[in-house]
Amino acid sequence: METKFVDVILPLPVPRPYTYRVPKDWNEKICEGARVLVQFGKKKIYTAIIYKIHHTPPQHYRAKYLSELVDEFPIVQPNQIELWRWIADYYMCSLGEVMAAALPAGLKVSSETIIMLNHHMEIDFDQLTDREYLIAEALESNEKLTMQEVSDILQLKTVYPIVQGLIAKQIILIEEVVKERYKPKMNDFVTLSPNYQSEEQLKQAFDELSNAPKQMHVLMKLLQLGKTPPEKVEAVKKTTLQKEAQASSAQVKALAEKGIIEIESLEVGRLPSYQSEPGEKQLNEEQQAALESIEAQFEESRKPVLLQGVTGSGKTELYIKLIQKTLDSGRQALYLLPEIALTTQIISRLEKHFGDQILVYHSKFNAQERVEIWQKLLKTEQPKLILGARSAIFLPMNNLGLTIVDEEHEQSFKQYDPAPRYNARDTAVVLSAMHKANMLLGSATPSIESRFNAHSGKYGYAFMGSRHGSAQMPDMEVVDLREQYRKKKMKTHFGEPLYEAVKKALSNKEQVILFQNRRGFSPFVQCNTCGWTPECKNCDVTLTYHKFLQKLKCHYCGYNIPHPKTCPACGSPEVQLKGFGTEKIESDIEIYFPEARIKRMDLDSTRGKNAHQQIINELETGEIDILVGTQMITKGLDFEKVSVVGILNADLMLNFQDFRAHERAFQLMTQVAGRAGRKDRRGKVFIQTFDPDHPVIKQVKKHNYDAMYNVQDHERLNFHYPPYYRLIKLTVVHHDKDLVLNGSNELAGMLRRILGDRILGPEYPAVARIKNKYHRQILIKLEKQLHLGKTKEQVASLITDFNLMDNFKSVRVIVDVDPV
Ligand code: ADP
Ligand code: ZN
Ligand code: ZN
């Protein structure tokens, strides 16, 4: 028999698949897409994916034998590898880098892996093999073990199968950057206890309760709400039961203590069917027309369709209809959202319709949970709705019929670090085409690129211009800050109109959202005498003041120092706080509205466990009166009692040196404004600015997306930016400043020789030093007519040549295709 060889993908930035020799015994067992363990480098062991099986030994090296066979079936499907291939080509990275991003950590154990005990699992030691037992025991006394240590304990060279086995049994976990466990919202539910489900038993219960009329009433209500007959009584939400029976929590508990009922904490959304909203929602006329148009366009061609619908127009309702049809036809649906918008609000709304057909894939899930989802999908062709953030595009899908990218304008669909620097929205277009699936992009404020594609006919298009029902678009008021200052009407951050509106809203028991763009508004300290400002020692940035920590902190590397009492430069005690971030605003507002319950939502306040979700819950249940926040608050949330939204200072959003600054400012302000007023109450939005005549301010005020688009379209064409030109950004990085300077000049020169004036720079970016590494950027602008694939190959090979030069061997070049 001829010797078999396999090309494998290693989860590393190596340029091409690597070839190994297959031990004869495994000839019949290996298959493409399965995992194997291989030795790479001196001592390292990695999980690799079989890419190709063939009979050709490599030319330049002696192939090593595969170390271990992990699966005897593909864990990665051919269509997934095809997608990886596309990502690697398009985003100019290696297949291995794509694999590293695509496979959950639990599926790619390597010699670098560190294992620990899964404390959520009760270990049944009798079920373990002797070797497994030894590892589990060792982990009881050592918190963590490296693969080498496991090897030493077992006195065995190949320990991976045993470790894999323990992972499969959920006894051990792989260490990862500690992530918060995603926690769904829980509620207490009441059911009839199993001991009281027959007529006689119930009769007995009522007898027992003859001297506790209130409890008897609760029981009756439960039977009524949970619907008779008794053996079918379904769970009723505890608070609903209390309300209906006009009973207290203690009275319900008393019944539980008697063993008649049971109280159980259940995930909200996984409600018994009758608890979901009554009936299907009837689409309104505009929605129905949009739905029909979208479906007709799906029928006609496989083009993606852009659905532009103002906030509250019912885009989500359309998604639900389209998903339902897809599932009914026996195919899967993929629903992508920005991570931050993936809240229980949207999850439970979808769960009401699709119940346990939903699989949520969240970055806050731990490695084990992600492996489970992966394996579940591998095994099933059943209709499923997969709901996730950008990395959900990597899940195995057998039968994809529909992809939805919601909030498609969001830049967070693009991954910046590490490679693959992919845009999940654009990759989803390719994924859908591969599966011959329909594709819908949705937004109230589409990206210029997508809107352009719809104009040019590359995408289809549908539009919804009004909010559902009697809900109106919010009333927009521009507040001229110059005038407010001149007339001395400012109360710190509030011009008079906003201040009065907040006061009124609070007295009406309505909620307020205040928006402050984070960038450029971070508070810092400065010496009033000599002008000294503390800067990060590792990065070229000013340290940001954190009131809560009483510290000055770097947002790039985390470096921090205590808040100085005196100026270290001149000794003056006049060290003062300048600028204002959300934290400062929060404390200032307390002065004007001491009664109000104020919360802040920004990167810092949401770092903790479930903090983001918690703030949303509190806003929903009315425990917050004023929410102060950054971009985070703009994402897909729907609160009925928010009547006032204030954009505290619109100007800094507009004044960025970025060709997307105006597009972004428009999107941000429109999305924030969209949080105001739903259903029957018209919301009011205040935009405070020093430049009330700025075109973008006027466009936002008039809800005029088209005006914004037309201006942008014109500018992009004139100044050679997307969608008319494609961009590739190269960043040259090293800790030696001179090397970065010389290297970037050299590289730009090399590029100019083939691409001429399509090359811009090199230039230092706004923050030229991060974590003690210097950065310099080169921008490549390519006209659409140019053969993209070929140009990328040229650029890639120039970078390789550059890195082969003696001087620049250690200089890193980061390639970012379609930077955002
Ligand atoms: P969008 O996703 O465009 O912001 P949503 O789908 O969230 O809009 O709709 C806004 C609100 O209006 C939601 O509370 C939704 O339940 C409600 N709604 C939208 N369409 C309908 C409809 N046809 N019937 C009943 N309620 C609707
Ligand atoms: Zn000083
Ligand atoms: Zn720093």
From TrEMBL:
<feature type="domain" description="Helicase C-terminal">
    <location>
        <begin position="501"/>
        <end position="715"/>
    </location>
</feature>
<dbReference type="GO" id="GO:0008270">
    <property type="term" value="F:zinc ion binding"/>
</dbReference>
<comment type="function">
    <text>Initiates the restart of stalled replication forks, which reloads the replicative helicase on sites other than the origin of replication. Recognizes and binds to abandoned replication forks and remodels them to uncover a helicase loading site. Promotes assembly of the primosome at these replication forks.</text>
</comment>
<dbReference type="Pfam" id="PF18319">
    <property type="entry name" value="Zn_ribbon_PriA"/>
</dbReference>
<dbReference type="InterPro" id="IPR014001">
    <property type="entry name" value="Helicase_ATP-bd"/>
</dbReference>
<dbReference type="InterPro" id="IPR040498">
    <property type="entry name" value="PriA_CRR"/>
</dbReference>
<feature type="domain" description="Helicase ATP-binding">
    <location>
        <begin position="296"/>
        <end position="464"/>
    </location>
</feature>
<dbReference type="GO" id="GO:0006302">
    <property type="term" value="P:double-strand break repair"/>
</dbReference>
<dbReference type="GO" id="GO:0043138">
    <property type="term" value="F:3'-5' DNA helicase activity"/>
</dbReference>
<dbReference type="InterPro" id="IPR005259">
    <property type="entry name" value="PriA"/>
</dbReference>
<dbReference type="GO" id="GO:0016787">
    <property type="term" value="F:hydrolase activity"/>
</dbReference>
<keyword id="KW-0235">DNA replication</keyword>
<feature type="binding site">
    <location>
        <position position="527"/>
    </location>
    <ligand>
        <name>Zn(2+) 1</name>
    </ligand>
</feature>
<dbReference type="GO" id="GO:1990077">
    <property type="term" value="C:primosome complex"/>
</dbReference>
<keyword id="KW-0413">Isomerase</keyword>
<keyword id="KW-0378">Hydrolase</keyword>
<dbReference type="InterPro" id="IPR027417">
    <property type="entry name" value="P-loop_NTPase"/>
</dbReference>
<feature type="binding site">
    <location>
        <position position="530"/>
    </location>
    <ligand>
        <name>Zn(2+) 1</name>
    </ligand>
</feature>
<feature type="binding site">
    <location>
        <position position="554"/>
    </location>
    <ligand>
        <name>Zn(2+) 2</name>
    </ligand>
</feature>
<dbReference type="Pfam" id="PF17764">
    <property type="entry name" value="PriA_3primeBD"/>
</dbReference>
<dbReference type="Pfam" id="PF00271">
    <property type="entry name" value="Helicase_C"/>
</dbReference>
<comment type="similarity">
    <text>Belongs to the helicase family. PriA subfamily.</text>
</comment>
<dbReference type="GO" id="GO:0006270">
    <property type="term" value="P:DNA replication initiation"/>
</dbReference>
<keyword id="KW-0067">ATP-binding</keyword>
<dbReference type="InterPro" id="IPR011545">
    <property type="entry name" value="DEAD/DEAH_box_helicase_dom"/>
</dbReference>
<keyword id="KW-0547">Nucleotide-binding</keyword>
<dbReference type="InterPro" id="IPR001650">
    <property type="entry name" value="Helicase_C-like"/>
</dbReference>
<dbReference type="InterPro" id="IPR042115">
    <property type="entry name" value="PriA_3primeBD_sf"/>
</dbReference>
<feature type="binding site">
    <location>
        <position position="570"/>
    </location>
    <ligand>
        <name>Zn(2+) 1</name>
    </ligand>
</feature>
<keyword id="KW-0347">Helicase</keyword>
<dbReference type="InterPro" id="IPR041222">
    <property type="entry name" value="PriA_3primeBD"/>
</dbReference>
<keyword id="KW-0639">Primosome</keyword>
<dbReference type="Pfam" id="PF18074">
    <property type="entry name" value="PriA_C"/>
</dbReference>
<keyword id="KW-0862">Zinc</keyword>
<comment type="subunit">
    <text>Component of the replication restart primosome.</text>
</comment>
<dbReference type="GO" id="GO:0005524">
    <property type="term" value="F:ATP binding"/>
</dbReference>
<feature type="binding site">
    <location>
        <position position="536"/>
    </location>
    <ligand>
        <name>Zn(2+) 2</name>
    </ligand>
</feature>
<dbReference type="GO" id="GO:0006269">
    <property type="term" value="P:DNA replication, synthesis of primer"/>
</dbReference>
<dbReference type="Pfam" id="PF00270">
    <property type="entry name" value="DEAD"/>
</dbReference>
<protein>
    <recommendedName>
        <fullName>Replication restart protein PriA</fullName>
        <ecNumber>5.6.2.4</ecNumber>
    </recommendedName>
</protein>
<feature type="binding site">
    <location>
        <position position="567"/>
    </location>
    <ligand>
        <name>Zn(2+) 1</name>
    </ligand>
</feature>
<dbReference type="GO" id="GO:0003677">
    <property type="term" value="F:DNA binding"/>
</dbReference>
